[in-house]
Amino acid sequence: GDIMAILLGCDSLMLLQPLDTDKYIVVSEAFYNRAIYRESISSPFPKGYRPVWQYNEKSRSYLISFLHCDSRELQVDDPRSEGIPLPSGRRKKDQGLEETGNRVVNNDTEEDVGSYDPRLNIEFFKSRGVNMETLTLV
Q1: Tens digit of pLDDT for each residue in 49-71?
Q2: Are 63 and 53 within 8 A, CB to CB?
Q3: In this structure, are residues 120 and 8 in contact, taking their beta carbons and an 8 Å threshold?
Q4: Could you tell me the pTM of the whole model?
Q5: Which of 30, 43, 51, 103 could be bridged to 15 by S-S, CB 3.0 to 4.6 A?
Q6: Where are the alpha helices (H) located in the chain, listed in sequence order?
Q7: How far apart are CA 4 and CA 1, in angstroms?
Q8: Where are the domains of the chain?
Q9: Cα diameter, the chain
């Protein structure tokens, strides 16, 4: 039958249909609440934090943000990645909650390389005991 998969670099959970050995076709986006926050593959949130959706007037969309329940402060950075440095040559351009979240930029060229956090890679998840598989999408 079909499977749901979290694909690195993809914001949505995806529904995949197996074609033959190790090949899949993307059927559609799927929804599973915990998958949105990577809680099912990353780790629980630190005590006092919880993920929330925050409406962004500028983009007219909702952004995943993180609420510190005691202080009631919102942040766009996932508190589970605190203390893990970005790859060499990259930095966060803090745009705050009123923009469209933090962006990662190239230090030398100032090129915007997206909002995907490059720290969330195969090594990051494997170090936390997550079973990672390579799939061929056709």
Answers
A1: 988 888 878 778 777 788 999 99
A2: yes
A3: yes
A4: 0.62
A5: 30
A6: 33-36, 122-126
A7: 10
A8: 1-41+120-138, 43-119
A9: 51
